[in-house]
Amino acid sequence: MGKVKFTTTLDSDLLELAKIQAIKEKTSVAKILERLLNEYLTNVNKDREEE
Known about the structure:
Layout: H1 12-25, H2 29-50
C-alpha cells in the first residue's frame, strides 16, 4: 500500500506532545499517527463483529 500526503488540523499542545514523544521513540509523528489509526480501526472492526 502506498503512502499519501494527508493534511489535518490538531490542537497545538497535542501536536507538541506528539512531537516530543516521536523524538523519544526516535520516530516521526506520522508513524505514530499511522500506528494509532491502524490500532483504532482494528478495534472498531472487532467491536462491530461482536455485535
